[in-house]
Every structure is written in C-alpha cells, then in structure tokens.
Amino acid sequence: MVQYTPPMGWNTWNAFGDEINEQVVLDAAGGLVQSGLAAAGYRYVVIDDCWSMPERDSAGELMANPEKFPHGMRALADAIHGMGLLFGMYSCAGNLTCAGLPGSFDNEFRDARRFAEWGVDFLKYDYCYHTPVLQAKYHYRRMGLALANCGRDILFSACSWGTEETQEWIRSTGAQMWRSTGDIWDSWETVKGIITAQDRFTPYGGVGCFNDMDMLTVGMNGIGNKGYDQKGCTAEEYRTQFSAWCLFGSPLMVGCDFRNLTPETAAILTNPTALAINQDPACRQVFALSPWSGNPLDTVRVRLLSDGSLAIGIFNLNDSDSQIVCAMDELGLPRTCGKKLVLREAWTGETYIPRNGVLEAKLHAHECRLYVGKPVDT
Length: 378
Hints:
- By secondary structure, this protein is an alpha/beta fold.
- 25% of the residues lie in helices and 21% in strands.
- The radius of gyration is 21 Å and the shape is elongated.
C-alpha cells in the first residue's frame, strides 16, 4: 500500500500503558467519533504493548490476553470497523516486546498472517530486545516483506527510534512511517528536543514514508500512564507542539484519554488550518529561515503547499520572550518582485501582511505563530 498523507489516529500507550482492555479501546474509538476527531481525519485506533499472553500457543501463534480482550481481536476489529474506523496493533522486532511479552523475531510471516486474520489495518513495530546479530534495517525488512505478502493492506509503522540512521534505509523496508527520535514525554523539554532535532530528517520524509515525531501529548496535562512522573504542558505549549507536528508533516497519533477530553484540547487537535497543512497532498519538506538574532531557538520553518501557498511556522523555543525577525528574500520574495504576502494565522484568524521585506513576530516563551498565505500583487 502507498500512504499519500501522514496517518492520523490514537494510540493506547501514553494514557493507559499496560492497563488496556477491550472496553478501554472501544470507549476510545467511540470518543474519536463523538468528539469530532474521526470526522477531522483521525481514523486509526491502535493498541500498543501489553495486549498478549506471556507465551505463544502450542502452534506458535500469538494469543490475545482473554482477561483483557474476552471477545478476541477479530471481534474488536469488527466493532471498530463498524464505527467507520481502522484497527491497529503492536509487536516488536525482538524476541520480546518492550514489556517482555512475545515479540515477532523469527515469526514475522506467521505473525503478519495472524494480524491479517484479525482484521488489523496498522502495525506499530517496536525495537526492544532485538538481536544484536542483525542490523536494524534487516529486522524491519523482514516484517515489511511479511506484511506485503499477508493478503491484507496493513500500514507498517516502524518504531526504530531513529537508530542506525533509520532515515537512510527505511523506505527499503516498505514502512509507511518511521520514528526519528526516542520516546516523547509530556513535558516541554522533550517537545522542544524533538522539534530541534528535525532538520536532519526533513529531506527523508514525504509521500509513502513519513517521519514520525512520536505520539502527540496534547491534552495529557501531566496525566500519563502509570509509573511515569510527567510535568505536562500549558495550552500554549500544546498549540506549539501541534503546529510543529503539522508543519513538519508528522503522522498525528493522539495519546490523551478521551474520557478527559476538554473543548480546548479538541479545538487544538481539530484546528482546520493546521490539519490542512499536515495533510497537504504535496507533502513537501520544510525549509529554514535564518533569524537575525542568530539564536537557533528562534525557529522559523516554511513549507510550500500544493496550491502555491506558504505555510510559515515561527516558534519561540526560548524560555523568555523573543522578537523573531527574518528576511523575506529567503522565502523567494525579494523586495523587487512586486509581490506581498497576505497571511492568516491558524490560531487567531488574524491577518498579517509583512512589511519592509521582513517577517517578524514578538512571541512569549514557548509560543508560536502558524501562518498560511499566498503572494499577491502589491
């Protein structure tokens, strides 16, 4: 299968960890529909680690934990499909998953067939307990080939943490998305770290294989899966995270608990301008503008959209206010071109027309502006 735009959905891990069961997943699927997120494009409902029994059955097959999933995975998949959604599951390239349950190493074709029989549409494939004898690319090629021959279209999400320069070989595996970083936490520090790490990966993402900046923490508010002390972010920081994920073309996998979904969180996750940027069919890479300050945390990234518009993200990643100024020449708009930019801001709806050949914004700490607009005659 070919994935033309970044996948969108929800994953159990950030909110529930190992405390997952059939009802939690069905409630989340219902929440996607009732909240309007499904209509906005969030279609995948993905079960992460901790769904299986500790051992395979006598025939070597993976088994769902019957206490957690009493009706089995096929029935759960059918129920999710009945809501107009798609069903995802999890496995691992090693002998064990990250939680110590059976992984898929040396069982790739068997497990791919099993997932197809269960009606799975998405497989997150982690990298814990992998054998050091094989390089990462060989682990992922094995499962990629197995999925390509399982008789069902299953989106292959390679969670290799960016190891061994994943971006350079991941397309060869057939994966439709790939993790470029380690795990995200619900804290500003990790969000900032992921944003600042992206420039080396941007040439490699795009149609067919998208750079996954990890699950969104928007709406978690410091309430993550048990055993993890997470600080949480402010609403402004969540808007900055979502703006960056959308502008950089990352898959959008929500991680919050839909039972606690606030209108403010729903509004962030369904912002139509940000989503249109993320899902733009051209899927072009972003490019950087050079802030006059020379401060790398004054971050400006731009993406040319399929209709000729420019999407411009201005991010203050500093811990204090900042006046960010860039020359518009770097956009391809010299002052002699006879054009001006008319921009609309995604979060406020305000119109901004840059003057005197410069793009500028005065931003509070951790704040952003996300603009979209076209050149017009002066």
